[in-house]
TrEMBL record:
Pfam families: Pilin_N. This is Type IV pilin. PANTHER family: ARCHAEAL TYPE IV PILIN N-TERMINAL DOMAIN-CONTAINING PROTEIN, VNG6441H. InterPro entries: Flagellin/pilin_N_arc, Pilin_N_archaeal. Keywords: Membrane, Transmembrane, Transmembrane helix. Residues 17-71 form the Archaeal Type IV pilin N-terminal domain.
Length: 131
């Protein structure tokens, strides 16, 4: 038996062997395209889920005798300021340059939170410990 005939039966002719590399290249390109599409989809979805923080200018001052005044000084992107803390009497400030006042004790903590009602986002903008 001739060696070339035996080789063609075991390995295949030149025309038959060329099919395997072509299929391999096509599969690699297909896998690359699919991976790129999946990664692009994930990246695009993550970009939309990030919420912007609310910003606003607020000052919190205490006069040393227990009275604390919170003033909304700069609107930023906030719709309102909610004043929270250990003191009683605080609430919501709805307009810039308005204030909220309460009587507090030493070491009480007062926190101002900017609120964006459109996107339902709250961000703490200032905090103060009464001295």
């Amino acid at each position: 038996m001739d060696a070339t005939i035996l080789r063609d039966k075991l390995i295949g002719s030149d025309d038959e062997r060329a099919v395997s590399p072509v299929i391999g290249v096509i599969l690699m390109v297909a896998i690359t395209v699919i991976l790129a599409a999946v990664i692009a989809t994930l990246v695009m979805d993550f970009g939309d889920s990030v919420q912007q923080e609310v910003n606003a200018g607020v000052t919190i001052e205490d006069d040393g005798s227990g009275n604390v005044v919170v003033t909304w000084t700069s609107e930023g992107t906030a719709d309102e300021i909610i004043v929270r803390g250990d003191c009683s009497g605080f609430g919501t400030i709805s307009d810039v340059e308005n204030t909220a006042t309460a009587s507090c004790s030493t070491d009480d903590v007062v926190t101002a939170v900017a609120v964006d009602n459109t996107n339902n986002v709250e961000t703490q903008v200032d905090s103060h410990t009464v001295s």
